[in-house]
Amino acid sequence: IGPLFLLIFVCIECVFLAKFQKVKLPWNEIIMNLNSGHILLWLFRGGELYVFYLVYTNFSFQLLDKWHYGWYFGFAFIAWDFCFYWLHRLHHKIKLLWFVHEVHHQAEHFNISLGIRNSWFSSITSIPFFLPLAIIGVNTETFLMVSSVHYFIQFYNHNAIVKRSGFLEIFMVTPALHKVHHAVNPEYIDKNCGGTFNIWDRIFGTYQAQIEEVPLELGLKTKYSSNNPFWINIVPFKKNKIIHEKYADNIIWFIASLITFLHLVIYIRMESSDTNLYLMVLVFSSIFISTIAIGGIISEKKWGFKLWLIVVFGINWVNVVLSEYDGLLLTCSSALVLFTVFYHFLKK
Questions:
Q1: Is 0.85 surpassed by the pTM of this model?
Q2: pLDDT tens-place string over residues 216-268
Q3: CA 123, 128, 129: angle at the middle one, nearest 5?
Q4: Which of 59, 96, 184, 304 is 20 to 30 Å apart from 103, CA to CA?
Q5: What are the beta bridge partners of residue 172?
Q6: Phi and psi (nearest 5°) for 197?
């Protein structure tokens, strides 16, 4: 359900920005944000939780066992944010970690969809930073719950509607403060690394409010642009970050990305139920291949649209036969597929 709510929030923000603030929306970037990292990120997120569980089960000192749950949860909530601060700060300081985190900073516009834009590998590089919680005695269920709350807050902190947050600016990371973090001006580089609370930035010297005379320039120092989900995750590791590609700018890849996102929602719902494991593997594989196909569509490769059609029609048909899909989501997906096919051939 989580990703579906995120998609709804993104749509609400887009409508508000376009209708009431008359903002010209960067649709290519928004769709790329939605389609950038979640394909492998969700798989590796499961691995991150499993490693946390193993460490908690085998190496925990269980120091919190006798605590009242209120204190226990409060400690876990604050300690998680402290760990995230150092995770985030070191992802800006250590080159290999920066190559992973760079995906999040490639975008040049600040909006809720940016909160979803992450590298395929970000869950892997996050693992060491949260293991101290497991060793101290934070159990896996609490870790997952605390993580979910913090990530939701961070998602909110990427919204473009709220300009100032009043007294919350004193102790919390807000959209205004986090927008500063995304700026490449010398005054703002590597500032505001906190996730939920800005107290860590204040203590460790990385706090920075926006300077009125210094307008924010978002993105990367060395700018390179791609709407290909494969390239945005791989290029940061290359020495030469110039991308020699032309990009399609039409509704086909927009709809294709949306359908892939719907399939992700279906996959996550299946993951939380007693769905057949082989079917889950099939759906996950289709999502991954669809992402590669979308890269082909964006790059105007002939194989891109064909591969995407084969995968999407195939996975829809399999799930109709097995009656495993949610009916409404399947109907939406199928309708969008047909629309995309008709549009593609009519445009020809």
A1: no
A2: 999 998 877 677 777 788 888 887 766 655 555 556 655 666 666 566 556 55
A3: 90
A4: 304
A5: 197
A6: -105, 140
Residues 126 and 142: their CA atoms lie apart, in Å, by 17
Please give the Cα distance from 227 to 231 (Å, whole number): 8
Q: What's the CA gap between 170 and 143, in Å, rounded?
A: 26
Q: Residue 139, Cα to own-chain centre: how many angstroms?
A: 24
* 269 or 70, which is more confident: 70
Q: Angle, nearest 10°, between helix axes 277-298 and 251-271?
A: 160
Strand-pairing partners, residue 197, are 172
- Please report which confidence band the pLDDT of residue 106 belongs to, taking 50, 70 and 90 as the band edges: very high
Q: What is the DSSP letter of 174?
A: -
Helix (H) or strand (E) holding 3: helix 2-19
How many helices and strands, by DSSP H and E, does the chain display?
Answer: 14, 0
DSSP 272-326: TTT--HHHHHHHHHHHHHHHHHHHHHHTT-HHHHHHHHHHHHHHHHHHHHHT-S-
